[in-house]
Design a protein that fits this description.
By secondary structure, the protein is α/β, with parallel strands linked by helices. It has helices at residues 12-20, 45-58, 89-105, 121-134, 145-156, 169-178, 203-206, 215-218, 232-251; strands at residues 26-31, 64-66, 110-115, 139-144.
């Protein structure tokens, strides 16, 4: 059954009735960013992906409202490139708290964040813990798309090791599947960051080390990886995997 319960399309009466009847008890909240994604992808890439995944997930969750996306995130690492707008971590945390307080007043106690920007993860992890401490009756989970898809990406990738990171095969493939008209593939370029061997953006390396970085110091174009290897076929495989993973988790609550 397709769920078209987008909060922005509802009246307060319809929302209240859905919550009181017990038919709707959850909220799916997409969060993205407005930041550089190389010369071939739009600034809103993370928001486009998060919004798409959240909508697909909501269609699989009959008891969940879909919130409009938060379109700004913590993007300080990309401020060296024009067009990037970055919020402070405290701002994001306050937004998550304020949204949670508002939802609780409406009788909604379960919030599921679909995060399209890897740079938001640490802030969101801290934010949902802070909300839980202040509002013990709330249940909150955050899903970071790029972390989830890497399991599937290991099976289908075409780019060589160390060639993932930003505006790479992963993000470009998903955008080719979601909004191909927004991708300027002739402008896609390959860039490998000059990092010590122990450091990279590969999932197995990030599991061992966290490190601070500034995109402008690592890349001239804003790309970290090889988006030339991207395809809509790969994007569809990644998107199907992440939607299945998140929807199954939400439906288990």
């Amino acid at each position: 059954m397709v769920n078209d319960a987008q909060v922005s399309n509802l009246t307060w009466v319809a929302l209240e009735e859905s919550v009181r009847s017990g038919r709707m008890s959850k909220v799916i909240l997409p969060i993205g960013s407005l930041e550089q994604h190389g010369p071939h992808l739009p600034l809103a890439t993370d928001t486009v992906i998060a919004g798409y995944v959240a909508r697909r997930v909501s269609e699989r969750c009959d008891d969940a409202f879909l919130m409009p996306p938060i379109q700004l995130g913590c993007s300080g690492e990309h401020l060296g490139f024009p067009g990037t707008i970055s919020l402070q971590p405290e701002t994001i945390a306050s937004m998550v708290m304020d949204i949670s307080v508002s939802l609780l007043r409406s009788g909604i106690r379960k919030v599921f964040i679909v995060n399209g920007h890897g740079g938001n993860r640490a802030t969101l992890d801290a934010a949902i813990m802070k909300v839980k401490q202040g509002l013990p009756e709330m249940q909150l989970c955050s899903f970071t798309i790029v972390d989830i898809v890497k399991e599937k990406f290991a099976e289908v990738r075409k780019s060589a090791r160390r060639l993932v990171g930003h505006a790479d095969e992963i993000e470009t493939s998903m955008m080719l599947a979601i909004s191909p008209e927004a991708v300027d593939m002739p402008k896609a370029v390959r860039e490998e960051p000059a990092l010590p061997q122990a450091l990279s953006f590969e999932s197995e390396d990030l599991a061992r080390f966290s490190f601070a970085w500034n995109a402008k110091e690592l890349t001239k174009t804003g790309v970290i990886g090889d988006p030339r290897m991207a395809s809509a076929e790969t994007g569809n495989a990644l998107l199907t995997f992440v939607v299945d993973t998140i929807a199954n988790a939400i439906n288990a609550f």
